[in-house]
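Researcher: Please translate sequence to structure tokens.
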Amino acid sequence: MDGRSFLATALVHFTAAALSDRGHKRPGNEDAFGFSVEHGVYLVCDGMGGAAAGEIASSLAVDEMLCMLSGRDRAIPLSQAVKEAIFTANEAIFSRSQRNKKLSGMGTTLVGLLVEDRHVLVFNIGDSRCYRLRKGGLEQLTLDHSLVDEQVRMGRMTRPEALRSPLRNIITRALGTQVHVEPDIFEIEAEPGDLFMLCSDGLTRELPDSEIESLLAADLPIEDLCGHLVNAANKAGGHDNITCLLVRAGE
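Model: Translation complete:
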């Protein structure tokens, strides 16, 4: 498989695996991921911009966020640490795009987890998503910052209409495109057996939630689950870059 993969195991409670693939249609891969099980940081970004700008934006976001959150002051509340890291990453991308005209307008989505014991912060900007598979089923924890999803939430468009809309690629928030950006942050408690999935829209555009749930529910190592998800998205068309990062809470 064309892609980049990585596997790591937490010292105590969590395991994580990730896989990124350019898909069948794109000439390159503008997705990026990074994580540190030791520091409880997990990130997926989907870059945008001309030439290689999207790849630069997503990689810069992952590097800045991973550095800030891995080295965070443990006395600072998790939500504050996330906001400070996002501010730093946003400033780094925006200022670089201002210095180089070829990178003008570049940006990236962001979805991530910051984990401390059983306490989990889920945060996102754009339409990359976080799901949780628990015994009761699959749940999408994030809300897409996209034009069509906001129309659906306001009751102005149905979900089937949103899936067919020519405007479905328009996102309403991105990291690095403006001086300031506001993330959504959700605080939850992890339970043993929880499986979290962070992914770019190259996965969710190809696979319905029902198929994602079925694939995640298989009794397999999480690195194999990543491979099955990416393979399924490619078989369904592979129209975009595909990235998934799985984080499992130990039993």
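Researcher: Any highlights?
Model: The chain has one domain: 4-142+174-249.
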